Amino acid sequence: MRPEILFPLFAPVSTLPGIGPRLAKLVEKAAGPHVVDLLWHLPTGSIDRRKQPKLAEVKDGEVVTLKVIVDQHFPSKDRRRPYRVRVSDETGFLTLVFFHAHKDYLEKNLPEGETRIISGTVEFYNEAPQITHPDYIVTEKEIASMPLLEPTYGLTAGLSVKVLHKALSAALERAPELAEWQEPHWLRQRQWPTWKEALTRLHRPEYEKDLTDTSPCRERLAFDELLAGQLALRLTRQKMRRAKGRILKGDGALRNKVLAALPFDLTLSQEVAIEEILKDMGE
Q1: Taking the CB of residue 129, how many other CB atoms lie within 10 A of it?
Q2: Alpha carbon distance 227, 229 (integer Å)
């Protein structure tokens, strides 16, 4: 029987906030059908948004997080042409570029004259910096909601990073604080975190080293998985040994004949193995 404390982890992913039937199928395809499957869908890399230069210092191709003032909107009458928004700081200007944009949405999120935090990849066009479809547009008060070191995951067609991040955040909230099953001395020696802390730090990393294969977080979870597999195998073997089987009892004549015909003497390990087999057979 599964402990009741684990019930929330084995609920369908469709029970997570914002994950309806359509998105549930996509999340299930990428990670699995249960909340716990989503927690085990570990990052494959990260996007570092910690670089926060002034506009005069941005470089082509780098991911940056910028504090800017929204200067002016330049909507296009032709839907096939991009909608542009000029932003600035005390050192220069940058253009935000949006294709197939909704004017009302952009005016609401980028009101002229107000300060915004923008994060995305810088590109230079005609020697001028621009960011096409910024990854994040938030107010100064909302900056805590934007991960400066953002983990990346394996996705599937139709499933966006933002949807997956939202689902993962909800899944982490369901992860319970479990009683520790590892030896305290072993944990201190390896400097391993608790089970929940390891999961949280992998999905919400503070440092790039948290995502490496040899990080204490990954080592802890990998050891847990190995230990759980060995314990499950041990329990299965014990159950099989307790079950009554059909006794195969003989007089040993054929066995002795085979052993006598061998051109070598059995090793101690081979003799022990034979005794265990005979014991299992009921002899």
Answers
A1: 19
A2: 5
